[in-house]
Design goal:
3 domains, four-stranded mixed β-sheet, 5 helices, 21% strand, Histidine-containing Protein, Chain: A, alpha/beta, globular
């Protein structure tokens, strides 16, 4: 009798342990699956590059494609701004920076994305830079310096230029896309000649070359 009770007790303990481990395994598997569907676009969103985003058949792919379209259609999104986004489990996280002149775009971007079919939540992490006359002058000077540099003017032809210029407290960051390493280097050199800019970070990405 004691042996029967002992066996029954051991079986009960074994089943309880298995029941505790199974949900954890399922949760881990679900988390791995969910994390694999995340689509991240660090920005800036531009017209000429990134068109392949959202070419898959998943819900996240379709949402990512629509988010890109909506951001490019914003009326106050200039080459001095940078917008990016991440799509994960029907949640869209908006990122980037805007000048104070384009601050309304923070609200407009969130409103536009919320209307996209399939989007369940929007997290708005867009930063609006403080107004600064000094930074405004550096933005304009940097743009003219790059636009006058041989071969770089083509990156400013589109309504949503391929090169974006972010300036905060006199620090210039070049973001966007160029066709070769030479253009990236020329852009960095041109930006460093701008009066008032005491630091230049060249984050331009080479898409071909």
């Amino acid at each position: 009798m004691r042996k029967v009770r002992l066996v029954g007790l051991l079986l009960s303990l074994g089943m309880a342990a298995a029941a505790q481990q199974t949900p954890q395994a399922n949760l881990s598997s679900a988390a791995d699956t969910a994390s694999s569907t995340a689509i991240s676009v660090p920005g800036p969103v531009v017209a000429d590059y990134g068109k392949s985003i959202g070419n898959g058949n998943s819900v996240e792919d379709k949402i990512a494609k629509e988010v890109r379209h909506e951001l490019l259609m914003l009326p106050y999104y200039s080459l001095f701004d940078s917008l990016g986004y991440t799509v994960h489990d029907r949640t869209v996280t908006l990122t980037g920076t805007l000048t104070s002149q384009d601050a309304v775009t923070t609200r407009d971007a969130e409103t536009a994305v919320r209307r996209i079919e399939g989007v369940e939540q929007v997290i708005n992490n867009i930063q609006v830079l403080p107004p600064s006359g000094v930074d405004d002058r550096i933005r304009e000077r940097t743009y003219h310096a790059l636009n006058r540099t041989a071969g770089l003017s083509r990156y400013f032809w589109e309504a949503a230029p391929s090169i974006h210029i972010i300036v905060q407290n006199g620090r210039v960051t070049l973001e966007g896309f160029v066709l070769n390493e030479a253009d990236k280097n020329m852009a960095g050199i041109a930006a460093k000649t701008v009066p008032g800019a005491f630091e230049v970070t060249n984050n331009l990405r080479v898409v071909r070359g």
